[in-house]
Amino acid sequence: MKHMHSSGGQRGIALIEALVGIAIFSFGVLGLIGLQASMTKSQSAAKYRADAGNLAGELMGVMWGDVGGNLVNYGGDSCKAYPRCAEWASKVARTLPLGTSRVAVNIVQPGPSWIADVTVELRWSQPGESANVYRTQTRVQPQ
Fold this sequence. Notes:
Distance between the termini: 105 Å
Radius of gyration: 30 Å
Largest sheet: 3 strands, antiparallel
Number of strands: 3
Helix content: 40-55%
Shape: rod-shaped
Strand order of the largest sheet: 1-2-3
Number of helices: 4
C-alpha cells in the first residue's frame, strides 16, 4: 500500500513542469515583443532624422537656385509669404510629426558679390517623446 501512496504524490509533477515551461516561454515571447517595439521606435526615429536632413537639403537646393535677390524672402516670417518657402514649410509639417521649421538668413557681405549664411532648423516630436531638432548651416553666394 505504501507503494501506491507514494506514486499518487508524484502525479502532478508533469503538470507543474508544463506550467514552468509555459511561463519561461511566455517571458521569452514578451522579451521579443519588447525588443521589436524598441527596434520599431528606433527605426521611426532614424527615418524622421533622415527626412529632416533631406528636407533641409531640399530647401538649400531651392535657395541656391533662387539666388537672384530673393534669398531674404526665406528668412524669418518672410518664409510664410514667399511661395517657394511656404510650400517647403508645409511639406515639413506634412512629413515630420508636429514638424515646424525656422530659416535664418544672415547677409554677411552685402553688395554685388554678396555672401549669406543660411541656417535651417527643423523641429518635430513623436508622441510620448521629447522634441527633436535638426539644424544645418551653409554659406550661399552667387558665382
